[in-house]
Structure formats: structure tokens, C-alpha cells
Amino acid sequence: MKETLSDVIDNFKNLKVLVVGDAILDTYVNGSPDRVSREAPVMVFNVHEQEHYCGGAANTAINVAALGAETYFLTVLGKDSSSRELIDVLKKNKVNTDFIIRDKGRTTIAKKRIMASSHMLMRIDEGTTTAITDSCEKELLQKIGEVYEKVDAIILSDYGFGVITNQLIEGIKEITCRERKALVADGRDVSRFKILHPDAVKPNYEETIKLLHIDKAHQKRDEQIAGYAKKLHEITGANKVAVTLDADGVLFLEKGKEPYKIIAVPQDNKKAIGAGDTFTSALALSLASKVKGEVAAEIAAAAAAVVVQKDGTICCTNSELKAYFTAVPKYISQVDRLSEIVNDLKKQGKKIVFTNGCFDIIHKGHITLLNKAREAGDVLIVGINNDNSIRKLKGPERPINNLDDRLTVLAGLQSVDYLIAFEEESPVHLIKQVHPHVFVKGGNYTETTIPEAALLKKLGCEVKIVPYLEEHSTTHIINKIRDINHEVEIEVSANEFSKAGLN
Description:
The protein is α/β, with parallel strands linked by helices. It has 18 helices and 22 strands.
């Protein structure tokens, strides 16, 4: 099953997807209020930096691209600086923006958040939220028809900001009738898409109870919604309805089948934005890959689970999604896949730390090393010698624990983010691929005496040495066990000698 899921996710790279909907430019203005203005009794906010992200349907498009598919995005923006910033972010994330319409009569929707020490002081919203003009509508339909011929799936992402009009939906119906392709709709009112008979719609819980005109339940929300499955299919015209229930997981309703509940994986981090867009993206790609409905929902839920572990408006990559379904999720089996993950993390501004070792019998010294390494950056990658490599270094009686056992133990440590095994005695090849910001070494070395010193200097990598703790090493533990066994053997022999009356 794991190989099948991996194949499905790999196939995302062969797909083409069209995303249509409302785009939002999310800007985070980071700074500090450092003095009172002379003009008025207000604080002066000193700007340190501005970061731009895509929200709304634009975030859905970025998520589709991150999962590996060739992505086309269609929307209507203004002819302003916000539209230029938004298009720039889309292009950097490998989204095709050639068909985006820019209307000088509209203002691009932008949400500017004023941030100080991770606290939001104010949000400034601007942009046109009324329906697009008739001429824009006609042009958008013409472009949808043109791109639709090229793609395997279409996602309609309606945030209620005027791009997806009733007339546009009517026009899309005519286009999709010519050739049926996977169609997934997401929006505040998914009943608007009923005439399209979508393959799937994805309302959240609040949107679902509004559709059904029922009161909010404070517990057993899945059971409440499951009782309205037939009505939801009628209201939405969809064959599949995925109701996202945040911490309570997902309720997947498919015509002719029993409700399917997906339990959410508990997460401490609740700062992620746009996990619903991630779910929609992965669901559409999975359905375009012709998998069963519940399998598509599981893949989509997994992609969302990856995202909620991160901060901000973030996406799930193809490699991260495949890793989620491995027996040891933190273990990356291929160097190329690790390189992809590292490149994505670096784009997010993450500081990468690398360390390595045998980690044969985990002890206090290992935990100290890994904790210190994790404190040195944002993401810790651990290179672990495979069994053959340890035999070369330590002799034929080692390792005590095989690679699978060692990986499983290390994966359970909170300090470790990713694991990768290597065959060589030194992880030089891995260091070249990962190109970490920080390299952490355990032992009584200096920056110049460690075996990898020349390479690290060439890469401009910071080096941190964590000294060994006295009497905390695998070799010391093994010798101590041998000494105890030897003492026991002597005592047993003495007792046997005594019983034989030979003392």
C-alpha cells in the first residue's frame, strides 16, 4: 500500500492543473514601535522588513505546484504594485501566470499585517471585492477554455471576492461538458457549483452548517454532519464531499458509500495558514490520478497534516508528502529527495544544521549532542552510518542495533527533523548535497582537526563542536556490559566449583 501511495504521489509530476479563483496578496510588515510621534499621540512603527505571500486561490495554485504538477493560474487582478508582487511570488513558486488578467478598473486584494515580535498590531485590507466586469468575464472564460484543453484537472477556489461569478460558472459548465476532467470546488458556498456536478467539493465545518441551515454542535461534529450526507450531495451536486473539521479531522462523504472519517494527527503548532488550500490541491491531484475516493482523501489529509506543522502561509512538497507515508516519516532514503527538501526549506529562510554518527546505543551523550545541534538552527538533519559503514569503523561485532532499529529510535526524538543513512566512513558526499549552514561534530576535536574541515571551509559552513560527556559513549556502555558479564561468569564458575566439593 505504501508503494502504491508513493507511486500515486510521484504521478503528480505528470499532471497539469488549472486553478481559477480569487487571489490575495498577504504581506507581513515586520518591525517595532519604538517612539511616540511628535505629530500626534501615536507610536511610530519602524519597518525592518516586508515579506510577501500568496493567499486565496493563489495559495492553492502554489500548493499544486509544490506537489509537483504543472500549474496554470487564472484570476483577475488590478494594474498595481500588489498585482506585480503577487505575480512575482507565483512565478518564484513555478506557477504559470501567463493567462492572468489585469484590469485597471480593479484594485488587487491585499492584506497587510503589521507585526512586532510575532504579534499582529494591525491588519490593513484593500482591494476590489465586487464582481468582475462583463468584458473580464468573457476574457476569463476564453482563457479557461484555452487552458482546459491542456490540463488533467481544474480547481475552482471561491473566496467570494468577485472573480467566480454565476455567469462564469455557467460558462465553465459549457466548457467542461465538451470533455470531462477532474473538477474540485472549494468556497464559502459550494452549492454555487451544483450545475457543474463537481467530482468533489471541500467545505469546512462552518460552511457546511450554513449550507444545511443547522446549529453548531460542540461535540461529535462528524456524527452530526454524517446524518446529512444525502442532503449535502443534493445541495452541492457533488459525488464526493470532504468536510474538514480542523482538529477533528475530515469527514469524507461519497455517494453510495458509508461516511469515511479521517482522524487528525495532533499538532502543537497552530500557526499554519492555508491548510485547507493544501487539502484541496492534494485531493484534486489524487482524483486526477484515478485513485479511490477514500485514498484521495487520506492523501489530501496527509498533505494538510504536513502543513500544520509549519508556520505561516506554507505548502506541502511532493517529497514531504511521500515521506509522510514511510514507516519512519523522518527517514529520507534518497539523497536527491533530501536535496529537494533542503532547497524548499532554504527558500523559507530556514537555517539548516547537519550532524552525523553511528548512534548504535542511544545514551545521554547522544541526546545532548542532538539537542545542542537542534538549538544551532531551525532544522536538524542527521546522517547515520549504515551497518556496513559501522562494521568498517568499529569492527565485525558492531553495530549492536541494525539500521532500521537505530532510525526508529532517532525518529522518536523531538530534536531530529530528518534522517538519512550513508555507506561511507565519512559523510562528505551528504554534506556537499545538503550544504548546511551549520555542521555539528561530537568529540574532542577542533574546527581544523575534524575530517571534514577542508570541505566545510570551502562551503563556508559554520562549525560547532560538542565535547563528549565523560563515560557516556557506546563503547563504554558495551565494555561495562562485558565487565558485568565476565564477573557473573566468574561467580557462576566459583559456585559450580564449590558445589563439586573442590574448594
